[in-house]
Design goal:
Blueprint lengths: L2 E13 L4 H11 L4 E9 L2 E8 L2 H10 L8 E9 L4 H11 L4 E10 L2 E8 L4 H8 L3
Antiparallel strand pairs: 1-3, 1-4, 2-3, 4-6, 5-6
């Protein structure tokens, strides 16, 4: 059984350079920031990185000190559950049944029989998606 939780996430563009994400992540960790998830992907000459902090206030304070140029806070979903064949398919099926398009998803086996995922829907669909997923 998978559980869904609404989360705040923050995105930004960084140079697509070796070690840039590692530098930012190390500085955030040194500032006491705990991330529930992090994802990044190339976007032309730069890369987009998304941060899902356990505590958004702590993250924002650290980001301000580091002068990170974050986009506005948005809402997504953190999915956790027992790993089995089709685990994320069941989650996506709930959204499809509610006619909600998933704009992006990152899912992985977490070991110990568990899986985790972060997923994004259009911001206008957050309330309906939360209802479809039973997210708190």
């Amino acid at each position: 059984m998978a559980t869904a939780k609404k989360i705040s996430y923050f995105a930004m563009q960084i140079p697509n350079r070796t070690g840039e994400a590692a530098r930012i992540l190390a500085a955030l960790a040194k500032s006491g920031v705990n991330l529930l998830a992090f994802t990044g992907f190339p976007d032309g000459q730069s890369s987009q990185v998304d941060f899902v902090p356990a505590n958004p206030k702590t993250f924002l304070a650290a980001a301000r000190k580091m002068k990170l140029r974050l986009r506005s806070k948005k809402t997504g979903f953190l999915i956790r559950g027992n790993d089995k064949r089709g685990a994320i398919a069941g989650v996506l099926a709930k959204l499809a049944k509610a006619s909600i398009n998933v704009t992006a998803v990152d899912a992985a086996c977490a070991g110990g029989g568990r899986f985790g995922a972060i997923l994004w829907v259009r911001q206008k669909d957050i309330t309906r998606a939360a209802r479809a997923l039973g997210a708190r």
